[in-house]
Model the fold of this input.
Amino acid sequence: MLSVKNVCKEYKKGVRVLDDISFEIASNSCVGLIGESGSGKSTLGRLILGLEKATLGAITMDSEPIHLWHKHNRGEMSVVFQDYNTSVNPRFCVEQILQESLWMSSKKMSNTELKKLLQSVELPVSFLNRYAHELSGGQLQRVCIARALVSNPRFLLLDESLSALDVSVQAEIVKLLKHIQNEKQMSYFFIAHDLESVSALCDTLMVLHQGKIVESVRTESLKYAQHPYTQKLLDAVIPF
Ligand SMILES: Nc1ncnc2c1ncn2[C@@H]1O[C@H](COP(=O)(O)OP(=O)(O)OP(=O)(O)O)[C@@H](O)[C@H]1O
Ligand SMILES: [Mg+2]
Done:
């Protein structure tokens, strides 16, 4: 489905933020990307979202160059960012936040559709009239997930979507995302800087280090990971 081939990205000539990145994400699978701050994770996310162009290499979706694919398949790829507070309009109530994502198509969701959507992220229907400041961080991020699902996407990109939440709320949302993935048969590309949430959600895990993918393993084989940087990440996980 998604194919990234020999992708390099330079913002400044000769300085590679991403260096020869290649991987694929099949339909209905979940691939995680971890790496420290500044390693190039969000840059790769933006290339996949078609917000920026790769300096070298090719990104395709169903064999079509990614920027054309986005043109022809509006709404098929959605994104949830880390900062739920700045990604919603504070003057909007939850109903307006959800309706807003349909503005381009000038459609409106019926009350039944809105209720179904809130239920799918396990929020009470009464929240439709609440404003962002009347919700907890975890609840607001659920609203953002619901908003990403409005267009019924086949592909969801999550860039540090759980990083600002506390660990117990992260675990709840990982469970929710797994459930949604099973139900809707979507693919996820899940970007994070910590191993725990990624390994809980993803089938395959890639490690980005200084712009290169230094490790790509099935999650169940994570303990056999080879690269010293992955080992360092594994050592940093504190078992409870
Ligand atoms: N538009 C830009 N112009 C110049 N440099 C940029 C631009 N966007 C990102 N960079 C640089 O590219 C590198 C990778 O940034 P990126 O945001 O992809 O990292 P990240 O892995 O997502 O980090 P974090 O975990 O902190 O979100 C950084 O050194 C950053 O300064
Ligand atoms: Mg980032």
Notes: The chain has a mean pLDDT of 92. The first strand starts at residue 2 and ends at 12. Residues 167-184 form the longest helix (18 residues). The domain at 2-76+153-236 is CATH 3.40.50.300 (Rossmann fold).
